[in-house]
Amino acid sequence: MAEKLIGQDIAPPDLVAKITGAAKFAEDFRAEGMLFAKLLLSPMPHGRVRSIDTSRALAMPGVIDILTADDLPAAEPPGERALTNEPHYVGEPILAVAAVDETTAADAIEQIEVDLEPLPFVLDPLESLRPDGPNARLGGNTIDGRELKSVKWTEADFAAVAEGKLPMGEPVQEWSVGDLDAGFAQADLILDDTIVHQSLTHHPMEPRSCMAYWQNGKLHLYGSTQSTARARVSLANSLDLDPQDVVFIGQYCGGGFGSKITMSPIMHVPALLSRKVGRPVMLRITRYEEHYIGRARPGFQAWTRIGWRNDGVVTAVDLYIVQDHGAYGSSGDHMSASAVASLMYQPAAMRFRGITVYTNTPPRSAQRAPGGAQIVAMLEPLMDKAARELGIDRVRMRRANAPDHDSRFGPNQGGLTSAYVREALDVGAEVFGWAEKSRLSGDRNGTRVTGVGVGLSPYVGGSSGFDGLMVIRPDGDLYIHQGIGNLGTHSFADTARAAADVLGMPWERCSVIWGDTSDHLPWSSVQAGSQTAHAHTRANHAAAMDAKRKLQEIAARDLGGSPADYEAADGRVFLRSSPSRAMSFGRAAERAIALGGEYSGRELPDDIHAVTVGAAGALAGQGLMGVAKDNYSHEGGTWSWVVGFARVEVDVETGEVEIKEYAGVADCGTVLHPRNLASQIHGGGVQGFGQARSQKWVFDPKWGVPFAHRLYTARPPGILDAPLVMDWGAVNEPDPENPVGAKGIGEPPIGAGSAAITSAIADALGGVCLCRTPLTTDVILAELEGRKQPYGRLDTHV
Amino acid sequence: MAVIRDMMPTFELLQPTSVEDTVALLQRHGERSWVLAGGLDSLDWLKDRVKRPETVVELGGVLELRGVRPTANGLEIGALTTLSEVASHREIVERFGLLSTAAGHVATPQIRNQGTIGGNISQDTRCWYYRGGWPCYRAGGNTCYAATPQSMNREHCVFGGSRCVAVSVSDTAPALVALDAEMVIRNTDGERVVAAEDYFLGPDIDITRMTVLEHGDLLTHIRIPSTWAGARFYFEKVRDRQSWDFALVSVASAIVVAGGRIERARIAVNGVAPKPMRLPDVENLVQGMPPNEDTAAAAGELAIRGARPLRHNDYKLPLTRNLVRRALRDAGA
Amino acid sequence: MTDIEIIVESEPRPFSRRSFIKGVIAAGAAISSTGYLFRASSALAGSPSARGSIPRLIALNVNGQSRRVDVLQQETLAMTLRYKLGLTGTKLGCDRAECGACTVLIDGVPHYSCSVLTGAVRERQVTTIEGLAAENGELHPVQQAVVEEGGFQCAFCAPGYIMSMVAMVNENPNPTREEAAHYLSGNLCRCGDYHKILNSAERAAEYARRV
Q1: Is a pLDDT exceeding 60 seen at residue C46?
Q2: A-chain residues within 8 Å CB-CB of C1?
Q3: Where does residue C3 fall: left (phi above 0), alpha (psi -120 to 50 degrees), or beta otherwise?
Q4: How far is A615 from chain B, CA to nearest CA, in Å?
Q5: Is the pLDDT of residue C47 over 90?
Q6: Which residues does chain B have within 8 Å of residue C188's beta carbon, measured at their own beta carbons?
Q7: Is the pLDDT of residue C51 over 70?
Q8: Verdict on whether the full-model pTM lies above 0.90
Q9: Contacts of C96 (CB under 8 A, 6+ apart)
Q10: HSE-up of A788 (CA within 13 Å, CB side)?
Q11: Deepest of A313, A430, A498, B213, by most Cβ within 10 A of its Cβ?
Q12: Mean confidence (pLDDT) of chain B
């Protein structure tokens, strides 16, 4: 039998298309008679449309039509629509013009008069919580469950703001476990601090451009999504269409990081404009527009108090997070952050209090390790501070608090499928050379001082219960249909290996089908929250086991013996005791077609999702079908871990930070694809460097207008901001709740990168936690020079 | 009425092939025209639709504006010479390494391949209020949005603010000031030569432009005298990202040391004032002094005397002080 | 609520950077802490010249072929390649010379095609990602190197990076890793896959040395 594909470096099947320019992303499609749309964006942070005069624009040659919020399906607040009559942030789209070309559409936008009534606005969550503070939304400033409400704190709550302490009024979300007072009473060291984490835009390389047309009552939408099958369903639901009437084409997604999980609201613009005018419509989203509508990570203003015993064990954690929510929807980053803190440090007693506050800033969504990436970057430097005061090695301290397989955490005290955290710390210390490198802490070389940091970062790594769908065709090849997306993680290809390995199929004879819902894709997880590596190795394993059973049954029927006597490998199903008694997969496929019933997909399992039923129905009769819902056991929460190690040099005369080296080591179960895992660890690490060091939002507080809406002002890290060489490693111990041992790994690397850098910078500063991200040159230099910090302790959007 | 970005409005593109034709076209189209060299600053304005010329005069075909030539007293660099050429030209590297180093610090390779030395020194400021099309003083309005108590002005000036607090962001400008370069400007009336230091204008002189260029003017060449050839050069640019970023503060210096003493010095800083700022007081102070830590410290302190930070840019004071120190320290290395 | 209109107008002098700007500031006592700045530009500055709006037929040399194409005078090379010549391998990531996804070679030198006027590259040789592989599909050594290293993640940046790598190996087939990083520093990868990109660049240089 062939060597298992899982664990090998195999490039994804789309690689040549990607590097020759042949790969078509959404904006690369053209359609006969295609029009171009342009958006009119709100110039004010909160307002209400009194009237719109489009007469001059519509009179221009080449202008075809205009779409406004009145043409869109309604949305219940705080839900968001593609266009609005009540803009809640500068840059929110108000209307769209369709014209024969973009130049005309842009000229037409300038001819439109929008009369907007200004409404109160607020950028800083704390301002909204003041007794007379404005609300970002007319219906309130926070959300409790699904209910919008207005929360105001008292003047007394704000009493310590002048000293830079987070005000902590009545929370909306809270939970606690254990006896907090007793926990702190046991502590030998207690530290508390106010910490601010910025909001930051996802800025995937590909802006969310989209093109749409209608044919025979079906919407064809070319868009950028992380999750193809789910984007089709969410788009259909949002437009009140039958999913069968939506064809979603998104074979390539130029990055998402949580900003393109399913459909994007803006997809309604070409979808509805093209329906209105009866012609295809392309909406090319610019980088400037992407900043506004492209989602962002919620910022935190937080306070924490942590207690440690002399041996470094955390006894109690008290955490308060005020979350900047943007203007729409419902975000739970602060809740996730609290769970991560509980998981990481395993305090016997913990209290979390929080509130999420609407602000007139661009909409938030999940961004790679939502909540997790913020909280680890905020808390890990405090761990270091405690380790320094207690005289304990920092890796040892993390080891002392790390959970194991039986640990419980969070408000519900749920368990874990596996946790090789100490192993990851050990491997990481080895890969990085912690024993020697940590001795470099504080070394001076001219004006540069060395800092060494370690950051631990866990995040959810898998869900379950989705469907697998595959067909062995008479050509003898295996066609694996994948409803997950292709945003660069390669999991659409890598998770298919679970099926190939079950069937002993060489990779050259496997075709992965993805990205176009007219190609019959099964019900799948969203490609978010690092679910797919886990969920779809399971689903593909289950469907492949179904195919294998059918192969065995057909072989036994034709060649004699019992099905269990047969094995499948290398495109043949053969008798174990006498391998020459065999049937090719091609022949088995022909036999499956002839036999019909479940063999060819004419009969389907009862428990698969309706979407899979539709897809399988369309494929029925084309070969031997493997189709199944993942019903494997899934006890406990699936969490993956990355520990990041960094060595930085801080120039004490300029405040500049150079990241000299970085290593990340993962516990993500069985490694599916080593080189790809390295990319996830390193790439996520680099995103974390940006979060810790340079990426920011800046708003003018008086006018509510953002400035960091271009890449050069938002400052994502470039190649010269990362170390030349980065190392990695993995524990590579299988997770017991996955048939191939896999756990997802997309999320944790960013927090590891960010926390390792915030920790290393604090180390270089002699243990001073600046308690803010990003740690830009000005912030660091002010500390080094003993000057006033450029921003107040609680300032946000700076 | 409504605003849209990222689509260039229509203009007429003129592509002359000689300096004579160029200045004639600029004279004819006057205030409605725009000079396009590498285009990186220009296209940014045009795509924002904030600046809307009727006519764009594109210089790519004016070959006489390209290249580096030796003169009787130094070098002459065509204004259209790309930053990549300036960064790698053998004679510039060998004799005036300050300029090649500065040019090599501009943005990215692609921008240096296209951007020109003339464009780099003549580019507009990056104040985000002004660039965003706000009706500020510099844009012809009657207020400065960057200098109010609430303004976001981390990247604005600490010297020379006068109604406007924007800074010059050119990397090569302070190097040219330190090298005592001269700018050769043509118009239909003929040629004039302006010292680098005088080429740049602060808002106290004219708030609507960054250089002495007026309608009809074309910067044709930059002359670098031999005065500082072979001096000890120091250039440093501190920025948030190591590529595609403007200087928070930069320093460019040329120092001649003889017999353990500083014989003469030119020091300029940028990113701190509306124009690249030469530091004559510091130059005078250090003349005749040994290039040691004490001199460096004194020079650094003097460099920031009179600086007036805004709400968020106090850090530019220690940063400027420390970069000037380093320049002096380097001279003694 | 009162709208206060402040109109600041002066002569349209685009070159002096003083242009017509109309500001409308609205504020009301009821919402004293809020304000609103209305920025506007249309029809206030120089009106577009009639001649400028007519496309010109020009000849371009792209990937070794002469292509005749109608272009607007303000049209950028990226738009011409993508929307007139069907060469969509050149990506628009920012359209502002900031990300490098649109990088093409002009006379062998990498440029941001989003920030080059098409009218300015007549007479010059333009090479795009589509022009690298041989007609028989054989990959360019740089592309082959990228394949060997497992490629990019989302790869929206890939065409631009590969063009920069091609220029790099042509100019210096023996770069250090640090030099390679500088050659590639005009391209942005938001997946952050810089380590692997540098591995690809080193391998590309190695292949280029062999050719």
Answers
A1: no
A2: 117-118
A3: beta
A4: 41
A5: no
A6: 244
A7: no
A8: yes
A9: A287, A710, A711, A712, B6, B44, B47, C114, C115
A10: 9
A11: A498
A12: 97
